[in-house]
Amino acid sequence: GSNLMFFFFSDWEELLEVPNLDKLVPNLLSLVAQLAAAEANQYRLFRFEKSGGIKACFVFLRMDAVLSELPAETLCLTQVVQSILLWSDHAFLSQSPLAILPGGRAVLRPEIGNLIRASYDPTLPELAEDKSHALRVSSRLSQMSVQ
Fold this sequence. Notes:
This protein has one domain. It has six helices and five strands, in the order βααββααββαα. The protein has helices spanning 21-24, 28-37, 65-69, 72-84, 110-119, 132-146; strands at residues 3-9, 42-48, 54-62, 98-100, 106-108. Strand 2 and strand 3 form a beta hairpin. The longest helix is centred in the C-terminal third of the chain and has 15 residues, at 132-146. The model has no long low-confidence stretch (mean pLDDT 92).
């Protein structure tokens, strides 16, 4: 994708005040109500090319106590990682995509970086729904670890 937009706010209702956001986000009013009711602190909305590739991602972050505790660079790097591919909702529940270096600096874990690189291999299709695609990505990952 070539378009990534971040929205930071303290209450989901604030999104309703953003001029013309309803033209970018379908069903904005009901989405805001749903996210507020769930007490969600983040939401990502994707738009896709006809070929299936990510065209745009809109990242919405309600800066609650949890997100406000994170350093800005950690929060943004985490969101970018979660926006560059379509991950499962459970992909990072047990382990963050980031590693913390001595001194506290957050960096992308090497295996996550390799997976992103392998997934964006120009010889692979932008979208694949067949199970063999996972084998093709896995093959590229194993080639990266050999080099």
